[in-house]
Amino acid sequence: MASARVDATGKPTGPAALVPLPARQTLTEDVYQAVKRLIMDHLIPPQGRLSIDQLARDLRVSSTPIREALVRLESEGLARKEPLRGYSVTPILTLDEVDDLFEFRGLIEPWAAARAARQRNESGIARLRAEIESVGVLPYGDSYADYQDLAGHDDRFHRLVADLAGNQHLLDAFARMHCHLHLFRRRYSTPLGSATVAEHREIAVAVVAGDPDAAYAAMETHLDRARQRLS
């Protein structure tokens, strides 16, 4: 990363100027979100160096919250640490890696949706409806600020279906993949997001109705279409 650049008032210019400085009262979380935005918006490119000292200067914080953020980003697969070289941004998923991811999801998620439909109860139905209703109007744009709420919904929805299936191993495996984060990092547009939300609703309707076959088919269709949208 290049050295920090500032204007006459001491404010940063260049990529760091595009990310809001973290608020002091929520420093750790805000630093994490700031660095994450730099990665997701490719302001620090794939395989680019994540210099702790440079990030601390750019965001005008100490190195401690930067280190904490990088550890967290490493756990999500957005950063990696190499001996004697420090942190760098991970590469974006290749098409082959996307295919592998969807092949795995195609094996487990339709089954999970069908099982969630069989095991539905009032609590699960309420949680599913609340998640679907949490999605508001999608903002237009392709920056992380535009799609991060949708990415959060996408991840929560699929984790919820896995949770309602009642298989902790499945839920743990899905959580470790952080798949939606990496898929949205590869490509996003508002029409893609609108299609995703509509397909989630179809899955939810089938689960709430207690129809395992319809839930299986709706999830399978959703995954097939999601894969095609990334082509």
pLDDT averaged over residues:
87
- The end-to-end span amounts to 31 Å
Instruction: Predict the CATH topology of the largest domain.
Output: Four Helix Bundle (Hemerythrin (Met), subunit A)
Oligomeric organization of the protein chains: single chain
Strand order of the largest sheet: 3-5-4
Largest sheet descriptor: 3 strands, antiparallel
How many extended strands? 5
Determine the number of helices (DSSP H or I, runs of at least 4 residues). 10
Helical residue percent band: 55-70%
Low-confidence stretches: none
Taken in chain order, the helices and strands follow as EEHEHHEEHHHHHHH
Number of domains: 2
Shape: elongated
Detailed description of the structure:
The chain has ten helices and five strands, in the order E-E-H-E-H-H-E-E-H-H-H-H-H-H-H. Strand 4 and strand 5 (86-89) form a beta hairpin. The two termini are 31 Å apart. The strands form two sheets. It has a three-stranded antiparallel beta sheet with strand order 3-5-4. It has a two-stranded antiparallel sheet with strand order 1-2. The protein has two domains: 5-89, Winged helix-like DNA-binding domain superfamily/Winged helix DNA-binding domain (Arc Repressor Mutant, subunit A), CATH 1.10.10; 95-229, Four Helix Bundle (Hemerythrin (Met), subunit A) (Up-down Bundle), CATH 1.20.120. With 231 residues, the chain is mostly helical.
